[in-house]
Design a protein that fits this description.
single chain; 5 helices; 82% helix; 0% strand
Length: 136
């Protein structure tokens, strides 16, 4: 252990880090091959064989040839997930996202009334009348 210097430790850590990054890229490319809808079965098989048999060259060639479409698929997938999440939140909250008054709009109206009352713009009596009008 005496002959293993601090510089050797640095180089070992650097190579290990680069190896982990390369593995991450390899798995990213393999998952992109399978989720790509513009590739047929033979195209997917060809890219997969290339990336598994010649991993460094295969990954490098894949990123050069299909890198832009890879990023477009990532962006589309993120937008689809975001839209699904927003639809789920709208459904769970009971609002329609601006399509007119629904169940969730009463909560917003009550919050606005409470804010007006807290600021002193309306009295407690006016607040109670408006609140009963909303809830009926």
């Amino acid at each position: 252990m005496d002959d293993y210097s601090l510089l050797d430790l640095f180089w070992t850590m650097l190579w290990f880090f680069l190896w982990v990054m390369w593995l991450f890229l390899l798995f990213k490319v393999i998952t992109d091959i399978f989720r790509s809808h513009d590739l047929g079965g033979w195209g997917k098989a060809g890219w997969l064989v290339l990336t598994l048999l010649l991993p460094y060259i295969g990954v490098l060639v894949y990123v050069i040839v299909r890198g832009k479409s890879m990023s477009r698929r990532d962006i589309k997938e993120a937008q689809d997930r975001d839209a699904a999440f927003k639809a789920y939140v709208r459904e769970a909250a009971g609002t329609s996202g601006g399509e007119g008054p629904k169940h969730g709009s009463h909560v917003d109206d009550l919050a606005k009334l409470a804010d007006l009352r807290d600021r002193g713009a309306i009295t407690d009596e006016e607040y109670q009348r408006a609140k009963t009008k909303l809830l009926v």
